[in-house]
Design brief:
mainly alpha; single chain; WH-like_DNA-bd_sf; 71% helix; Arc Repressor Mutant, subunit A; membrane; 2 domains; RNA_pol_sigma_r2; sigma factor; Rna Polymerase Sigma Factor, Chain: A; 217 residues; 9 helices
Length: 217
């Protein structure tokens, strides 16, 4: 029988505010397998993946009093494992890893004016804010695919859900982002930036659908 998913926010509050070791053990047991699969996806070494998970959990316990600001513990651990895995690979190979979502090498150097850099920063800020409004699972699926570059089946294995659920959650996330970005136009909001954001999300939806149709998931 599959263990019911705990309320991570409640567990995290107990850990940070009450030093509750039992809540920490529940958090560890529930997340370990998924986090281990994610680490192993990057480092390809069983022992290294285990060390990365252990180091992150030990550090989180030691720094629990300073971690009350973390609002999405589950997402926090996935990001921490990803970052630590990439850090290990960089140290091992001397290679610099670049987030493909941020890599805009196709643009000429002269395009990076102060105005364009400010616009890109605002675009990413608005998109990140919109992503944070997504339901927990949809947000996690979106970030694993968009930021980590994982495929449907890989995300399904890590989260222990079906590839169809991954697809559904991703499509829902894209649809929700479009609605949020269209409605989020307070005073002073740059209309052109808003339209670019919406276009970005629509493009992401088209690319995602294409990958699904050709079976690349």
């Amino acid at each position: 029988m599959k263990v019911a998913k705990p309320d991570f926010v409640v567990l995290w509050a107990r850990i940070c505010l009450e030093d509750d070791i039992k809540s920490f053990e529940v958090l560890y047991r529930y997340l370990y397998n998924s986090l281990h699969k994610l680490a192993l996806y990057y480092v390809r070494e069983q022992e290294v993946a285990e060390d990365i998970i252990a180091e992150i959990f030990v550090r989180c316990w030691e720094n629990r009093k300073e971690s009350t600001h973390i609002q999405q513990p589950e997402s926090y651990f996935f990001v921490a494992v990803r970052n630590q895995s990439l850090k290990y690979l960089k140290k091992k190979s001397g290679t610099t890893f670049i987030d493909l979502a941020e890599n805009e090498a196709e643009h000429p150097v002269e395009a990076y004016t102060p105005e364009s850099l400010l616009e890109r920063k605002e675009l990413h800020h608005k998109l990140d804010h919109a992503i944070e409004t997504l339901p927990a699972q949809a947000k996690l699926v979106f970030r694993l695919i968009k930021e980590n570059g994982l495929k449907y089946k890989e995300v399904a294995d890590i989260l222990e859900i079906s590839p169809r659920t991954v697809q559904t959650q991703l499509f829902r996330a894209i649809a929700k982002l479009r609605l949020v970005l269209k409605s989020e136009k307070p005073s002073g909001f740059n209309a052109e930036i808003g339209e670019k954001l919406i276009s970005m999300v629509i493009l992401l939806g088209i690319i995602t659908f294409f990958k699904y149709v050709v079976g690349n998931f």
